[in-house]
Specification:
By secondary structure, this protein is of the alpha/beta class. It is about 45% helix and about 10% strand. Among the domains are: about 1-250, Rossmann fold; about 310-475, Nucleotidyltransferase, domain 5 (2-Layer Sandwich); about 505-610 and about 615-650, Taq DNA Polymerase, Chain T, domain 4 (Up-down Bundle), CATH 1.20.1060.10. The chain is globular and about 85 Å long. This is DNA polymerase I.
């Protein structure tokens, strides 16, 4: 059977947009045209055509917002949020993409894409012998089109990982036949289309009714056989049920002109021109590899293969004074990674090694400080050498492309392929998944020729981008930020990762068992409370089952999305005893799965966890950690705080924590030149008490209440994050006018703050980005939006980023200086971790006095040291930085 692919263009484009937008990056051309959705759409469609060998492809779009369904229901789809601004121009660009590739698309006034697809599917089934249909969509309404010749391709994750639905799969998922999908929709409605269905009838009840009465019509013909509240709900919702069924029914009889199904013939030249026009260079080479799609390669200029030597062992006669080195490993956690290939390039050529085992010459090359090395992700590379028990000289690694690229644009995800998005290069590089496979299908044992060429190609990208990146850093006045802060920090983080943190396994086992028993106890209580509503198979950790229980079976009120997140549950906690138990169950489950049982897989043979400090993940310059995440164990939540007991110091050391006191407020005072704030900090007065005194107009001899201080604290920290009158009224449980009055009093008390905030927003709007004291930049596309909510978010970023980013840079300078001072003094004590504004050390008893003096001195002078590094010596740093110290044998004792 030949296959024809019918694509729901709107559905796929929306999904493509959100899949990439959630990563935090909106791909744009150099002149600002957004292309992220079209890029994902093009990538997915060409992949599908190649992998699944379709005879023909047709793409259908919605032509206008109003269709015949709006005549029947005026507010049809009215609840949907506005289309993101960056997506709007991409609807036209995606049509241009299809035209350039010679792929047919269609649209028709007054009809939706669903109707056009339904019509085409029925025409193929009835008039095209030997053909079957696959429909690519994320709209589950299309399930009604399933037949023995038509199946639905449903994206499970982003625009990849597709699930094929036929009649059997639909029966497993919804327990109804395709022709009764519209009956299901009639009863349960569809919030995304603003179809209400029968109020109080959810999916489970609807399926049960349809199993007995087959259709909506059958239910109402036998309404007397249904009793109690359900009968009442059905009677009240009868008109809605029939209307929703009618609207959900796809029209498969649309008049369509000149409908032909011919063998697909992708126009490669047109496609290449399109990709070049919209600067999607990384797609070009990928497309040329998809021979199922491309059949006209003779006119395409493909870059010549790189010439390189495959070596069995390294020979230092190939070494040079300056060398580029790329090390390949597929493991996400590089502490468990192994080297599967290595490439080196210098003035003598390109070289490839498939194995590094027992290579003494390579080790000599890595140890020799006369051989300087440039690489991508130094920390990962040297860790992989350590894993392979190969000695190296860390200081011979003098350039890190990953960190340099991050300084240039922190919005772009750290992958070597993304260097193309940092600097313009006339190179093309495949995605890893195309070479090694993805997920469970990933395979490092691939053809040697293919693997070596791919790794050498990555090396060429590293080499070619080197001068371009360094020149860009200098042109952007960010070279010092990279060279004197970010690059030295890599070594500090590497040493912290290698040291690791000791875990008390007995304490971990004790807490794990105790938490598990608490979870089981709560589940027993919930089963008693819910007798008659659930059976033994009910899973309290399933949001889907919880949603059906709370809103369908118990009939508790919900929002449109029927959310079961913490905030939603807290709003209905007083309505049923199970809700409070669910909240407690969820909290315990998170503790168990994330911080207790979840930690066990990260413990190495040395009884330590070796986290990965992510230096290039956040937009503000802050560090994060993963594998495991040790930065988000709350000290405010008593349950989570207990988990801090599992992190213990070594027998001959103690933990010491040094935490900057209110660093972001201090940075705000300095950068905003706010004299009143500077005076408060300069004379060591309590900022929250002083702010309360000013907000409430209280004299110096009047005592501030704890409530007044709490309100002032909300202001002091909230003001950095764009505190609004609405947000403040929610936080303090006061009226919006009262909140507005408080905000006015606050800004009257600190008059330069509003001027400073407005200047930050104005500057960011003019430049398109916000920048820190050290010239770390963050592009803020949201500021160009005409959507009030989006632009307001951009305003908050413009204010928050310079302050939070500067605070992060101060932390980094302190860490570098402390590390250098420890090394100079030959101290054995070391840094363990950094958590937001706090640095934790393990200090030997014999070194306590020296170590504490070094730490405190360097943390207090870090802002001034930062000014020297970024050549802002003329800026007088007036603000005093203060640190709080604590010590203990485990993290629990530190706070």
């Amino acid at each position: 059977m030949k296959k024809i692919l019918l694509v729901d263009g709107n559905s796929l484009l929306f999904r493509a947009y959100y899949a990439s937008a959630y990563s935090g990056v909106i791909l744009k051309t150099s002149n600002g045209i957004p292309t992220n959705a079209v890029y994902s759409f093009a990538n997915m469609l060409t992949s599908l055509v190649s992998d699944r060998d379709y005879h023909d492809v047709k793409v259908a779009f919605d032509k206008s917002k109003k269709t015949f369904r709006h005549d029947k229901l005026e507010n049809y789809k009215a609840g949907r949020s506005a289309t993101p601004e960056e997506l709007i121009p991409q609807f036209q660009i995606v049509r241009e993409f299809l035209d350039s590739a010679n792929i047919t698309w269609c649209e028709k006034e007054n009809y939706e894409a669903d109707d056009l697809i339904g019509t085409m599917a029925r025409i193929i089934e009835n008039h095209c012998n030997g053909f079957e249909v696959e429909i690519l969509t994320s709209d589950k309404d299309m399930f009604q089109l399933i037949t023995d010749k038509t199946k639905i391709l449903l994206p499970k994750l982003g625009t990849s990982d597709l699930e094929l639905f036929g009649e059997a799969e639909l029966m497993t998922k919804w327990e109804v036949a395709p022709k009764h999908v519209v009956d299901l929709k009639g009863l349960m409605g569809d919030p995304s289309d603003n179809l209400k269905g029968v109020e109080g009838v959810g999916k489970k009840t609807a399926i049960k009714l349809l199993k007995e009465f087959i259709t909506v019509e059958g239910i109402y013909e036998n309404i007397d056989a249904i009793s109690g509240k359900l009968q009442e709900k059905l009677i009240n919702g009868k008109e809605s049920a029939f209307l929703c069924k009618e609207i959900a029914t796809i029209n498969c009889d649309v008049e369509m002109e000149e409908l032909k199904f011919d063998r697909i013939n992708v126009n490669l030249n047109g496609l290449i021109n399109f990709l070049e026009k919209y600067e999607m260079v990384s797609l070009v080479k990928r497309l040329t590899n998809r021979v199922g799609v491309i059949n006209k390669l003779e006119d395409v200029k493909v870059k010549e293969k790189i010439k390189y030597q495959q070596l069995v062992k390294w020979d230092n006669s190939y070494a040079s004074e300056f060398n580029f080195i790329y090390v390949e490993s597929l493991e996400e956690n590089y502490h468990k990674g192994e080297i599967i290939g290595l490439a080196i390039a210098n003035e003598k050529g390109y070289f490839y090694l498939d194995t590094v085992k027992d290579d003494t010459e390579l080790e000599a090359f890595l140890i020799n400080s006369d051989f300087k090395k440039a690489t991508y992700d130094i920390k990962k590379v040297v860790t992989l050498f350590a894993n392979a028990q190969i000695n190296f000289n860390y200081d011979s690694f003098i350039y890190d492309a990953m960190v340099a690229a991050y300084v240039l644009n922190p919005n772009i995800t750290s992958r070597i392929q993304n260097l193309f998005n940092i600097v313009q290069m006339d190179l093309l590089l495949d995605e890893d998944e195309l070479v090694y496979g993805k997920g469970a299908k990933q395979n490092k044992e691939i053809d040697l020729e293919l693997k070596s060429l791919f790794i050498v190609s990555k090396l060429e990208v590293l080499k070619t981008s080197y001068d371009l990146i360094l020149n860009s850093l200098k042109e952007n006045e960010q070279f010092e930020l990279y060279q004197d802060i970010e690059l030295p920090l890599v070594k500090v983080l590497f040493e912290m990762e290698q040291k690791g943190i000791l875990i008390d396994k007995l304490e971990l086992d004790k807490q794990t068992a105790l938490t598990l028993s608490k979870i089981e106890e709560i589940e027993k209580k919930m089963r008693v409370v819910l007798t008659g509503y659930i059976d033994d198979s009910f899973n309290f950790a399933s949001p889907k089952q919880i949603k059906e229980l709370l809103f369908d079976q118990l009939g508790l009120p919900s929002n449109k999305k029927q959310s079961t997140d913490r905030e939603a549950l807290e709003r209905i906690v007083h309505l049923h005893p199970v809700v409070n138990l669910l909240l407690e169950h969820r909290k315990l489950n998170k503790l168990y799965s994330t911080y207790l049982r979840g930690f066990e897989k990260f413990i190495f043979s040395d009884h330590k966890v070796h986290t990965i400090f992510n230096q290039t993940l956040t937009n503000t310059g802050r560090l994060s950690s993963s594998e495991p995440n040790i930065q988000n164990i709350s000290v405010k939540d008593d349950l989570q705080k207990e988990a801090r007991k599992i992190f213990i110091s070594n027998p001959d050391t103690k933990f010491y924590s040094f935490d900057y006191s209110q660093i972001e407020l201090r940075v705000l005072a300095q950068l905003g030149h706010e004299d009143t704030l500077l005076s408060i900090f300069g004379s060591d007065r309590d900022i929250h008490t002083e702010a309360a005194r000013k907000i409430f107009n209280l004299a110096d001899d009047i005592e501030i209440t704890s409530d007044q201080r709490r309100i002032a604290k909300v202001f002091n920290f909230g003001i950095i994050y764009g505190l609004s009158d609405f947000g403040l009224s929610n936080d303090l449980k006061i009226s919006i006018p009262e909140a507005r009055q408080f905000i006015e009093e606050y800004y009257n008390s600190f008059p330069k703050l509003m001027l400073y905030k407005n200047s930050l927003i104005k500057e960011a709007m003019e430049k398109g980005y916000a920048s820190t004291f050290a010239n770390r930049k963050r592009i803020i596309n949201e500021l160009a939006s005409t959507n009030f909510m989006v632009k307001s978010f951009g305003n908050r970023i413009a204010v928050n980023m310079p302050i939070q980013g500067t605070a992060a840079d101060i932390l980094k300078v302190a860490m570098i200086n402390i590390s250098n001072a420890f090394a100079t003094q030959n101290l054995k004590s070391y840094m363990v971790t950094q958590i937001h504004d706090e640095i934790i050390f393990e200090i030997y008893e014999s070194e306590v006095q020296t170590a504490l003096e070094i730490i405190e001195a360097n943390m207090k002078t870090a802002f001034k040291d930062l000014a020297k590094i970024v050549k802002k010596d003329e800026t007088e740093i007036n603000i005093k930085l203060e640190v709080n110290e604590s010590k203990g044998n485990n993290w629990f004792e530190l706070k």
